Amino acid sequence: MAQAQEFEKVLSSSDTSVAAFDEHKSAVKRIQHFLHSTPAAVPLIVLVLAIIVFGITIGGRFFSSYTLTLILQQIAIIGILGAAQTLVILTAGIDLSIGVIMVISAVIMGNCAVSYGMPSVLAVAIGLAAGAACGLLNGVLVAYMKLPPFIVTLGTWNIVMATNFIYSANETIRDTDVDTQAPLLHLFALSFKVGTAVLTLGVIATVVLVLILWYVLNHTAWGRHVYAVGDDQEAAKLSGIQTKKVLMTVYTLAGLIAAFAAWVSIGRNGSISPSAAVTDYNLQAITATVIGGISLFGGRGSILGTLFGAMIVGVVSMGLNMLGADPQWKVLLTGVLIIGAVAVDQWIRKVSA
Amino acid sequence: MDQKGFGMTMTQEPILTARGLVKRYGRVTALDNADFDLYPGEILAVIGDNGAGKSSLIKAISGAAVPDEGEIRLEGKPVAFKSPMEAREAGIETVYQNLALSPALSIADNMFLGREIRKPGFLGDWLRMLDRPAMEKRARDKLTELGLMTIQNISQAVETLSGGQRQGVAVARAAAFGSRVVIMDEPTAALGVKESRRVLELILDVKKRGLPIVLISHNMPHVFEVADRIHIHRLGRRLCVIDPKQYTMSDAVAFMTGAKVPPEAALAA
Ligand SMILES: Nc1ncnc2c1ncn2[C@@H]1O[C@H](COP(=O)(O)OP(=O)(O)OP(=O)(O)O)[C@@H](O)[C@H]1O
Ligand SMILES: [Mg+2]
């Protein structure tokens, strides 16, 4: 052993217990630690509270399984887009284009199946590929050209939206045409009744997708790398992670998921309308993500939170609707929830650091 | 001991060499024709003023930065690492000055970042499932073995650790995975007296395993205690290499700061 310096000699008589994996904590510390390591807890609590509050004020009508499952049907598409947005935001990016990617993918699926008479399976595959290609474009620009995600996706948002209108000549594909020529496109409208609860395949697909992504993010190396890249990209790179590849796959996957949302949306809407491109799907997806506790600075949050976030918005708008309130109250409350969610996020991080 | 010999090390071929490394950041020249030699089984200390280019040097030889000019050889074969991953795969493990840990990830996740262990069989091969228990056990074993710190929970986020504990995790990661060369850029900068001593013992342990170590440090007593040779870096290049048994700390500081010119024999070829 090396010769210790004079002042270090006393170390030989110092406490030699090392690496004691102490599991004892005070109750408050435990709660802090729990919230820190379980980022979906806060949105889940808010969701349960919202259901209880509206349940009490509205009564049994709200608590019915019919109402609750109707909320799920309403948030399915935002839930899926929110899942795509979550992947991107976890890498400290943002994707403003997923809403229009969804719309153009739906239009492409519809045109391929109805206007060009292709087999529905092929039409769906082409639509999914188109969404993934848009995502890939975002990914290449962000990862390899090193352009800021906000600017890149602001650009592709406009490009895809314009392409959508030019390509489709803003013509809607009618519900009945889809039904007769390509019923596969309406697959996710299939519904099951369990008592008064009505579950569509779209709702089930949303939940399953989120669960799959949760597994991938938490239990595979790629998922850990997504978090690491969003957390500290430089550190991730020095740790040996191929950050460019991770970023590119994330944006591509987000595009693919947006195209999947397109398929589900055809089931929900029946017809396929290019003018849906002006709907603020993006902002709704970002809202669900933020209320779900995903940090806009990247690297933190659970994708389950995003699903809860979407449900919170769904519960609040349904509740206020049933109370007969001015729809603007929903908008106002959403704003409050967004700011509240970010504040809570900061608070949890402060107490745990 | 004779001047050239530095003991037995010089009689062997160096394991890692660099010649004429140049690295520019805009108008700043961080490396200006820097040379570097590391011999098998030795502890080479690299010292120099702030901004002398020590970190730039180790970044160049560990794949974290691609030098503009110059040549690097590992065991005689030219190498050009384009990423830290490639250097790691070649067996060069590095503790960077900024530690390179992901704050929100757990200690175990950090230690295995980029080389995760997957579950055996279907779960791992098809579902790509990580073997958390195995990784946590190995991380825990390593940290306990190194005795670097008191940690509450191996699955706690790195950001909930103190600066010194984080440094311990980074050092443990490098020591656990290095197979050819271990490089440590100021591994004791944030550590307490006791923890610093442990890291020094750890460095000697790694040496006992036969691995050469590059130790960058501003702590002269530590450097003189463990180093077999001292590489003095000044103004972006290697000024000289000295034997700690033949020079005093004040000599080293004088060379490093330019207060004294090193003798011919010590000057880099
Ligand atoms: N990424 C970078 N961008 C711009 N300049 C850099 C970068 N990295 C290093 N430099 C510059 O290169 C020079 C050498 O820096 P380096 O970090 O290698 O010094 P060092 O010897 O490690 O110093 P310290 O003892 O403070 O760690 C400095 O002038 C620094 O400003
Ligand atoms: Mg440095």
TrEMBL record, chain A:
UniProt-recorded name of the protein: Mannose ABC transporter membrane protein /fructose ABC transporter membrane protein /ribose ABC transporter membrane protein
Source organism per UniProt: Rhizobium loti
One Pfam family cited in the UniProt record for this chain: BPD_transp_2
Superkingdom of the source species: Bacteria
InterPro entries linked to this entry: ABC_transp_permease (IPR001851)
Keyword RNA-binding: no
CDD domains documented for this protein: TM_PBP1_transp_AraH_like
Subcellular location: Cell membrane
Main location class: membrane
GO molecular function annotations of the record: transmembrane transporter activity
Transmembrane portions of the chain: 40-63, 75-108, 120-143, 150-167, 187-217, 246-266, 304-323, 329-348
Keyword Kinase among UniProt keywords: no
Membrane topology: Multi-pass membrane protein
GO cellular component, one term: plasma membrane
Keywords annotated in UniProt: Cell membrane, Membrane, Transmembrane, Transmembrane helix
PANTHER family: ABC TRANSPORTER PERMEASE PROTEIN YPHD-RELATED-RELATED
From TrEMBL, chain B:
A Pfam family that the UniProt record links to this protein: ABC_tran
Entry keywords, A to Z: ATP-binding, Nucleotide-binding
Gene3D superfamilies tied to this protein: P-loop containing nucleotide triphosphate hydrolases (3.40.50.300)
Species per Swiss-Prot/TrEMBL record: Rhizobium loti
SUPFAM superfamilies referenced in this protein's UniProt entry, alphabetically: P-loop containing nucleoside triphosphate hydrolases
Name this protein carries in UniProt: Mannose ABC transporter ATP-binding protein /fructose ABC transporter ATP-binding protein /ribose ABC transporter ATP-binding protein
GO molecular function term, any single one: ATP binding
InterPro entries reported for this sequence: AAA+_ATPase, ABC_carbohydrate_import_ATPase, ABC_transporter-like_ATP-bd, P-loop_NTPase
Location of the ABC transporter domain: 16-260
